[in-house]
Amino acid sequence: MSERIKEHPILGVQEKGKSVKFTFDGKELEGYEGEPIAAALKANGVMVHRYTRKEHKPRGIFCAIGRCTDCVMVVNGVPNVRTCITPLVEGMEVCTQYGVSAKPFEEQ
Amino acid sequence: MNSVNDRSRDIGPFVPGPDDDMLICRCEEITKGEIRKAVHDGMWTLTEIRRYLRTGMGLCQGQTCSRLVKGIVAKELGISPSELEPAASRVPMRPIEMEVFANEAPDEKEGE
Amino acid sequence: MKTTAEVVIVGGGIIGCSTAYYLAKMGVDVIVLEGSDHIGNGGSSRNGGGVRQSGRDVRELPLVMYGIRNLWPTLSEELEVDCEYHQDGNLRLGKTEKHRDILTKLADSARGAGLDVRMIDGDEVRAINPYLSDEVICASWCPTDGHANPLTTTLGFYKMARRLGVTFISGECVKELRVIKGKIRQVITPNNTYEGESVLVAAGLDSREILTSVGIDIPMTKSLLECLVTEAQPHMFDQMLGTAEADFYGHQTKHGSFVFGGSSGLERYNKDNGTPVSSSKTAPCICRGIIKYFPDLAKAKIVRTWAGWMDASSDGVPSLGKVDEIPGLYVACAFNGHGFGIAPAVGEQLAKLIVTGKTDVDLSELHYDRYKAKI
Amino acid sequence: MKRYDLVIVGAGPSGLSAAIEAAKKGMKVVVFDENEKPGGQLFKQIHKFFGSKEHRAKIRGFVIGQQLLEEAGEAGVEVVLNATVIGLYQDKEVVVRKGDRVEHYKGNAVIIATGAAENMVTFPGWTLPGVIGAGAAQTMMNIHGVLPGKRVLMLGSGNVGLVVSFQLEQCGCEVAAIVDAAPRVGGYGVHAAKVARTGVPFYLSHTVVEAEGEDHVTGVTIAEIDSNFQFIPGTEKHFDVDTICVAVGLSPMSQLLKMAGCKMEDDPKRGGQVPICDPYGRTSLPGVFAAGDVAGIEEASSAMIEGRMAGIVAAEYLGYIDEEELKSELASLDEALNGLRQGMFAPQNRGKAIEKTEEGIDISESLLKNGYVADDEIEKYPGVTHKTGIHPVIECTQNIPCNPCQDACKKGCISIGSKITSLPIVVDDSECINCGMCVASCSGQAIFLVDESCQDGTATVTLPYEFLPLPEAGTKGKGLGRDGKVVCDAEVVSVKSMKAFDKTNLLTIRVPREYAMKARFFKVV
To answer: Is the peptide bond before B92 cis (omega within 30 degrees of 0)?
Structure first.
């Protein structure tokens, strides 16, 4: 998890929840319980959260506060989940969202 | 509000621009060119633009693009952006699951 | 600014816009005055998008059937906008025996008027729409009904009418009509006086007050109807839905979102603040209703709710046509919350009426002066 | 339905401040915030605040957040988190989503303190993953402890762009450049200078031509623009970056007020769509008040005062205080707010090109254009003096409302005087004891302790240092100039870290004497 800040000159070592496993498109990843799904994905180097409905363009984190809704993904089968404000839970199934589905466009 | 607006006023012809394919509404994937064309089709208020094109009608409800759309429409109409009234704000401020919206807490007496 | 035309239309909703469009197509010079800042700002942009025949009173059925047969199928092409018209049928749902009675009576009378509509049982309902819950025990099924996008359709009429030279002026709130030498002539706003040989009043609820100035009263009350829309969802179904008691209606749009309207039972009494605004009680109630019909939608997210005033008449059908007492004056109002689907036909027929004095569909049952005491 | 004296939406600086004031007057107050943590933007702001003591100057934003929370708790305010207000209906009814249900509340009074949202600009590729708001960067690094990117281009040189650039560097990101379409740096000069001296180049009158990348940002091209905002061919510059951070201003998040039917107006001076309200937040709807950025974009310090004002006005509205008390309380808050609304960056000066300081000194052209004061300009400012032995050099060159340095020096070496925006001067005949408090107290990191008279032909420079790893005494490296370029060899003489310095470490470096007034940062090479 190279993208985590280990120690911050002002904030020190930030407290984290317990380490949990979740899946991203079926692949097992680790994150901290309670942190936003988006933070866990970012820490694992995941940039693309979804591809848009019309143009099939990639999108990721944009506002990080739940306002812009660009970072939505299919979480536990539910589409359009704002990953930047949804806490990570052990065993979560997080999938790239294609349009409003977890199925890639060619399979839709 | 309710100022006389003659939709026959000449705003000149639609002239294609080099950045017409710039995406403006990120949720509904509406471009600058589509917005500009809609103005020339008579959509002169932000409410009309929104209803006609769906700008700001997606998941975020215009939280990101409304200011951008306003600027484009104002420019096309040759007016100041502050003359354009933003589209109505509606409940809910954030997307809310039907089952949650449906689940109203029982009335309690004042207090805790 | 232009203030004189052959026809002045009061009201820039879908009725005003469609009438203006069909008039302009016939070469008539038209001014449309819209009281609010936006074209199509009343029920035209706040309804559930139904384009249906079933469930309607037989008096207005011929007109809507005419529109579905002759106008709706080619409307997108004609207006150069995607009206998102879907003709995939209408399920009017029932959960109780009482509902079955209501629906059966409506279906019988509609069939009498020539509409293809029949009663089906719960299993057949779910064969058509597998997402509906077991609570549904019956429905009336009208395969030629459907739905469309009220926003693009209304603004499409506006766009094309404007392109054909119709003058639209918004922010012109008509306060008074004036009869000059026995004929309608002037339309007065706080800012201007407009003149026309003919005047059509299609201003929804406000029509009543406007017509009062020439001594015409069309009895209407207002009721605050509310709708909501979800985020886009994977495609589920294409039918229009309604219920026996008209307390729930909606469809899935081309965009993928679901538009649903519903009733809390309080709509006649809910207050507004000068513009129609949602009440805090209605949307949760609509959601509870939807989940009962569609358990699968429980996790779908609502992104927007809105309200609109319905212009309700005592018998549930509009006042439409010529005002005989005042030459040159026409009315089209009191659509009772289902004016959208019928609007293209209303516009086309009114345009013919204004230009030729005749219509293809008999409008006599919708005469403005039909209200009588019960005994 | 649950009813409170006061329902406040937003637990940021203004909402919490309003709640504290109102609760102190005896009101029953509840504050809703959609976030998991309270404090609004305060918890993302890790720099020391400007102003004077009454504005909580030299305290870091997140610490102010903690202070406000404690005060709110002591005053009996109920702060409800993860509570999203989804609507403000008629009759001051607030509907709140909490977990898996919605709850209806009524307030006898309601204060909307929902803050602001970031503006955006468009450029080809602006929707690519890797293009983020500056607020998003702050949230990711300061709240969630995740790097927003490794190499970042900052678009926007206002205070947000400058502060976030510094924060990015603090957590280990490289800031490739700060770019702004405006011809001048928009934020405080001291914020710009502390970034510039670390080696970040500024490109004013430049903007993004294109963000590059297939699935995410891999690079960016910028170019210079002319006065009509058209690109000047041949001026393109390319940077390999993985992140583009957009900091182009804020808009009031006023939708709830509009929804409730408040009369609104578009006021570019206040940042966009705002409620029409009086200076104390009274809107057109009786009993509905607005406080903080939602009523006009400023910054957290003024938001706190505006919040207090709204809380007091609400208390009077509901009869918890009388008119006389209202007047006297508002008078002192007016004064506090006026104190902040002084100087070059005051709201009334927005958009004005100010050429001279209040003292009549020319504003540094280089500072506005490059982010740092040029070596040949620095001597003009009253805080920059020479003397034998150790002494403070105060590179504070713009009139901003801030005076902690004056209080920091127990020996009276530094004076600002009664006008809070005046440039600090070094008092003649005062004796510097090398305590370093001034260096650590300066929110702008603009104070250095310099000893130009070391015996061996060297000089020492003590500078504020808020980065990791902290170099140890004896570390050899390079001295960087105000422009961030290497000027000389340098060796760390000492590193001081004290509780009173509040995480601002004091790094003393030894440089050749001729660089005493040039070397302003240290880099290990």
So the answer is: yes
CB burial readout C19-40, b (16+ within 10 A) else e: bbbbbbeeebbbbbbbbbbbbb
Q: Assess whether C243 and C138 both reside in one domain.
A: yes
| Neighboring chain B residues of C303 at a CB cutoff of 8 Å | 58-59, 61, 92, 95
Three-state secondary structure readout of D390-441: EEEEECCCCCCCECHHHHHCCCCCEECCCCCCCCCEECCCCCCCCCCHHHHH
| CATH code for the domain in which residue D131 is found | 3.50.50.60
CA distances from D8 to D33, D107, D109, D470 (A): 9, 9, 9, 43
Task: Show the tokens assigned to D53.
Answer: 């003591």
Retrieve residue D377's tokens.
Answer: 């300009």
CB contact under 8 A, B85 and C35: no
Q: How many residues are listed for chain D in this entry?
A: 525
- D227 and D321 belong to one structural domain: no
When scoring D103, D121, D267, D297 by the number of chain B Cβ atoms within 10 A, the one with the most, hence best to mutate, is: D103
Q: Specify burial of residue B10 (Cβ count, 10 A radius: 0-12, 13-18, 19+).
A: exposed
Q: Which amino acid is at C368?
A: Y
Peptide bond connecting D469 to the previous residue in cis, omega within 30 degrees of 0: yes
Tokens 């060297």 correspond to D458
- Tens digit of pLDDT for each residue in A45-80? 999 999 999 999 999 999 999 999 999 999 999 999
A2 — pLDDT class (breaks 50, 70, 90): low
Calculate how close chain B gets to C325, using CA atoms only, in Å: 31
The total of structural domains in chain A comes to: 1
Query: What is the C-alpha to C-alpha distance for residues A94 and A26, in angstroms, rounded to an integer?
Result: 8
**Nearest CA-CA distance, residue D519 and chain A, Å:** 22
* Chains in contact with A, where contact requires at least 3 CB pairs less than 8 Å apart: B, C, D
Chain A residues closer than 8 Å to C256 by CB: 53, 100
The verdict on C206 touching B (C-beta cutoff 8 Å) is no
Element (H, E) at D107: strand D101-112
**Architecture label for domain B23-102:** Orthogonal Bundle (1.10)
| CATH for C16 | 3.50.50.60
| Phi, psi angle pair for D20, to nearest 5° | -60, -50
Return the CATH number at C280: 3.30.9.10
Structure token pair of residue D280: 């104390």
Cβ contact (<8 Å) for A5 and D145? yes
**Assigned token pair, D387:** 């003397």
Kindly state whether residues D419 and D467 are assigned to the same domain: yes
B57 at C interface, C-beta within 8 A: yes
pTM of the full structure: 0.96
ipTM for the complex shown: 0.95
Q: How many angstroms separate the CA atoms of D248 and D186, rounded? A: 10
Q: Which of D211, D230, D246 marks a domain boundary?
A: D246
- pLDDT tens digits, one per residue of D191-224: 999 999 999 999 999 999 999 999 999 999 999 9
CA C157, CA C124: separation in Å to the nearest integer?
Answer: 38
**pLDDT grade for B112, boundaries at 50, 70 and 90:** very low
Strands C193-201 and C183-188, by their bridges, are antiparallel
Q: How far apart are CA D147 and CA A72, in angstroms?
A: 20
Crossing angle (nearest 10°) for helices B66-77 and B46-53? 110
Number of neighbours of residue C69 by Cβ within 10 angstroms: 12
**Alpha-carbon gap, residue C35 to C29, rounded angstroms:** 20
Domain count along chain D: 3
Category of D442 on φ-ψ map: left (φ > 0), alpha (ψ -120 to 50) or beta: beta
Tell whether C235 and C295 lie within a shared domain: yes
Domain of residue D419, residue span: 374-524
